Amino acid sequence: MKIKYFLLAIAVASLSACVKLDENPKSFISPEQFYKTAGDAISAVNAIYYPMVDNSTGAQPIYNRLFYTGLDFLTDDLDAGPGSPNAEVRALAKLTHASTNLRIQQIWTEHYEGINKANIALERIPAIEMDGKLKNRLLGEAKFLRAFYYFNLVRLYGDVPLLLKDQTQLSIAELQVPRTPKEQVYLQIINDLETAASLFKAGSSGEAGRATEGAAVALLSKVYLTRRDWANAVKYAEAVITGTYGYALFDDYAQVFLPAYKNGKEHIFSAQIKGSTISTGHLITSSDIRSGVPGLKGSYGNQLAFYTVGSDNFFSLYKLYSSKDKRKRVSFVTYYTSPTDGKKYATINAPGDSVPFINKNWDPNYASTGNSDANMNILRFAEVILIDAEAENELNGPTGKAYTSINKIRKRAGLADLTTGLTKDQFRDSVYLDRRLELVGECHRYFDLIRQTGTEVTGVGPEGKGILLKNLKLVGKTNVAARHYLYAIPQGEIDRNPKLTQNPGW
Q1: Beta strand 376-380 with 307-309: parallel, antiparallel or unpaired?
Q2: pLDDT of residue 447
């Protein structure tokens, strides 16, 4: 069963734009009237998922294009294609954007909307008389989702306001709070995830696509990896790999992305998308498809970042794949066959050199509309295996255990085992490359560039080599600067809350 999403009447347009109202209109269902039954509790938790995939406010949902335009376009993988005429989107891709950029604001707003929905559920559900196991599960989902949203925020913006109460019940003075140090935010994230795991263990099983105990443990491994707590990253990754959660790699890499296999054994946590039923549709697919193919709806708003290597003026991530790598033919397509005239259409930028299009969101059942039922992967088993390889190498060097993990990913891709005898630095570089090839187009690259750099602001750390600046300059994004290790705090939020401070360089 797929999750049905409900948008509650209680929502926030922005972090600091909500105030406590005394009015009690007759048509409004107050919180005291609504949160009475198990069905109300389920609806409250369903609403927490909503900002990931759909939105009634006109903003792009987080995992339904917003992270593409507001996140992946800032990396060395993707760029704004010819179908992205929006000036703010193109500014992000060129790294000329300002703190007033709409996508930067929307990312902030959408995450805090999800957080507030989680706060509401966590405040109201405990008082509802209902089955105890169901209550535990729902509270576990709310804890997990709040932690997940804060994890994105703290990685993007650094210190952020840590709000753990229903914002719609707070006054302006209570909402206008300073930024919370990121260490404190991380402690809350870890606490929420540990609590969620315990609640799930004591709770009932849910529908496919919901957060689970396995998802909480997997996300803990990623949180600790981000914090360079290698021992705990290994601990929690191993708990997922050797646990009884039932996760495994698909035999065929293509099955990871085909709608027929969604919520399968490799999928730990995904944004649930049923393109024909959500109001926005699947916003990424048509932007991946090239325009001008008879019978297909596509804008080519997303394209790979091209740069020059030697005499090749059209080098890209696509050419980093070995010809034997099975992920290459799944992740990309170099031409489309028109369902109208049967002809093949490819874009040629140079003689004999076709431009590859990202193919992970393609759904053949919606070819003529550009829609898709493909979920957006957020956490999958392959990434946990790569987390284990990376953290083990940082903790103990390139041990046999680290090799075993990375070779699982390489074997599925059709590649030979990684060369033995590598140094710690060489093994790290190999893991970074396989993460890039395995997870392209899944909204991980910006976070990886930051983590691989060392520290968010200076780019100097025990493992850092200035990867963000170096890699973006390599693909011609020469406007990249030290300030891009963190996003700008949206200027609109600073205007509404004078206690907020701006990040360095913005």
Answers
A1: unpaired
A2: 94
Query: Which residues, 6 or more positions from 257, have their beta carbon under 8 angstroms from its beta carbon?
Result: 330, 359, 360, 361, 362, 374, 377
For the chain, percent of residues with pLDDT exceeding 90: 74
Answer yes or no: is pLDDT of 10 > 80.
no
- Cα separation, 220 vs 192, in Å, equals 10
DSSP-H helix ranges across 264-342: 285-288, 326-331
**Count of residues making up the chain:** 506
Q: Residue 122's pLDDT band (boundaries 50, 70, 90)? A: very high
Q: Quick check: 352 pLDDT over 80?
A: no
Helix (H) / strand (E) containing 138? helix 132-157
pTM comes to: 0.92
Residue 55: closest CA among 16, 88, 87, 12: 12
Q: What is the mean pLDDT of residues 158-178?
A: 91
User: Quick one: which H or E segment has residue 378?
Assistant: strand 376-380
Alpha carbons 421 and 413: distance in angstroms, whole number = 22
SS3 state of residue 283: coil
SS3 content of the chain, % helix, strand, coil (to 5): 50, 10, 45
- The tokens describing 207, both together, are 């529908």
pLDDT-derived band at 477 (thresholds 50, 70, 90) equals very high
Look up residue 176 and give its two tokens: 């206008």
Q: Which of 455, 389, 456 is nearest to 424 (CA)?
A: 389
Q: Which pair of tokens denotes residue 190?
A: 């870890």
What pLDDT shows up at residue 32? 65
Amino acid (1-letter code) at residue 312 = D
